[in-house]
Design goal:
It comes from Mycena alexandri. InterPro entries: Znf_MYND. The protein is mainly α and about 270 residues long. It folds into two domains: about 5-180, no CATH class; about 225-268, no CATH class. The protein contains nine helices and eight strands. Strands 1-4 form a two-stranded antiparallel ribbon. It has a two-stranded antiparallel ribbon with strand order 2-3. It has a two-stranded antiparallel ribbon with strand order 5-6. Helix 2 (about 20-35) runs antiparallel to helix 3 (about 55-70), helix 3 runs parallel beside helix 5 and helix 6 crosses helix 8.
Length: about 270
């Protein structure tokens, strides 16, 4: 039986020969083999500092790179088995008891962050901006629990370095979604565009999409805007007013400060 390392090496050979779909499938098999039957911590030590050492992380990075590429047709619909594998490692998923101890939890967090980036890019590519923002928010929440992942700093190597760069990409992508939401909400006015998943009639909105600029008849808001007048914060997972369920706030302080005005909008 081929080991996870064997499958990874075969995948690399196929990739170098231009057989990308075959390589993609071998990367998927390598990950499953390691998770199901091997030690997830096994490493290849002779790798540059710019790459992870863990065999499963190398296979994961390669699999994710195919999904994130603009060419090759690596989509959820074309490769459901691989997509489902990535989905089972999203940050909010449970399980994966193979990742034990501090080192195991660190490795699992890195894979979860990478999975969230991949799922976010795939969702954004399909026009599902709100799901992309959700995945990015989940990834940043995980990254905050392990400081080396949370920022690109000098001296980072291997898994810490590759994950930190992914976190930076996630942070940049989420910032782009928030900017687009703010710009579109401002152009429409009338208090619209402040709640995640709100659908706006914005036929001329210019969207910074994964593939560039596009035009759509409607615009689905990806992030919440803080309901306090004067606060420009946007994000995912803002708490809503428990009375009206229609106004979101970025913090308890903003909600308290806005309460005197906001309570007047409640109907009896």
């Amino acid at each position: 039986m081929l080991t996870g390392k064997d499958l990874l090496i075969q995948g690399e050979r196929n990739y170098e020969a231009g057989r990308i779909p075959q390589a993609f499938e071998l990367y998927r098999q390598a990950i499953i083999q390691i998770v199901d039957k091997e030690d997830v911590h096994q490493k290849i030590l002779a790798v540059p500092a710019e790459a992870p050492q863990e065999i499963i992380a190398i296979a994961w990075q390669n699999l994710s790179a195919c999904f994130r590429s603009d060419a090759g047709g690596f989509t959820q619909e074309a490769y459901p088995d691989a997509y489902n594998l990535v989905y089972t490692f999203r940050p909010t998923a449970h399980g994966h008891p193979q990742f034990k101890g501090p080192k195991g939890r660190r490795l699992l967090k890195a894979i979860q962050i990478s999975a969230a980036l991949t799922l976010g890019l795939l969702a954004w590519g399909k026009g599902d901006r709100s799901s992309a923002a959700k995945r990015y928010h989940e990834a940043l929440t995980v990254a905050a629990t392990h400081p080396p992942f949370n920022a690109v700093t000098p001296g980072l190597k291997h898994l810490d370095r590759t994950t930190a760069f992914e976190v930076q990409e996630i942070r940049d992508n989420l910032a782009m979604l928030m900017r687009n939401d703010s710009m579109t909400a401002s152009s429409i006015g009338s208090g619209q565009g402040v709640l995640r998943k709100e659908v706006l009639n914005a036929p001329n909105a210019r969207l910074g999409d994964v593939g560039g600029i596009s035009h759509q008849e409607t615009f689905v808001v990806a992030t919440d805007g803080c309901g306090r007048v004067g606060c420009t914060n946007r994000g995912v997972g803002f708490k809503r007013c428990s009375a009206c369920k229609k106004t979101a706030y970025c913090s308890v302080d903003c909600q308290k400060e806005d309460w005197k005005k906001h309570k007047l909008t409640h109907t009896s």
